[in-house]
Amino acid sequence: MTDEFSKHTGTRVHFQIQGEERGLTQHGKLTIVRCLQEALTNAKRHGEGTAITVILAFHYEELALEVHDNGHGAEAIHTGFGLKTMKERLEMLQGKLEITSSSGSGTKVVCSIPIKGEVVS
């Protein structure tokens, strides 16, 4: 997905996996995919970023998707339909959405879901 996004938008995207990869349920996978799509789109559309770093981190008790762009950032984030939907999807899995941004420093979006109950053996 990150390669296709980079190709179609001309945005450099660096993708990295941290930790030991573990399988998720279909619901967990779909949630992470939708969060990644929304975060990439927002980084380009609203932040006007030219480079994006995506980290998929498998921690002991959670899976965290971090998307950080080099866009212009903002002091206040407007929570539109996309971010509200992302938050609702994560909350259905007892996950959370964290967004940090400041003018001139880009934006970082972190979507996390507990692995307990989501790991498929």
List the helices and strands and how they pair.
Elements: H1 2-9, E1 12-18, H2 26-45, E2 51-58, E3 62-69, H3 81-92, E4 96-101, E5 107-114
Parallel strand pairs: 1-2
Antiparallel strand pairs: 2-3, 3-5, 4-5
Helix pairs in contact: 2-3
Key structural traits:
3 helices, Heat Shock Protein 90, alpha+beta, 121 residues, single chain, 33% helix, disordered C terminus
Write a structural description.
The chain has one domain: 2-Layer Sandwich (Heat Shock Protein 90). It is built from three helices and five strands. The protein has 121 residues and is α+β, with helices and mostly antiparallel strands. The two termini are 25 Å apart. Mean pLDDT is 89; it is low at 117-121.
**In one word, what is the shape?**
globular
Q: Please estimate the helix content.
A: 25-40%
Under the CATH scheme, the architecture is 2-Layer Sandwich
Strands side by side in the biggest sheet: 1-2-3-5-4
User: Largest sheet at a glance?
Assistant: 5 strands, mixed
Which strand-content bin applies to the residues? 25-35%
Q: Look at the structure and give the CATH class.
A: Alpha Beta
What is the rounded Rg? 14 Å
How many domain units? 1
Overall mean confidence score, pLDDT:
89
The run of helices and strands is HEHEEHEE
* Regions with little confidence, pLDDT below 50 for 5+ residues: 117-121
CATH superfamily: Histidine kinase-like ATPase, C-terminal domain
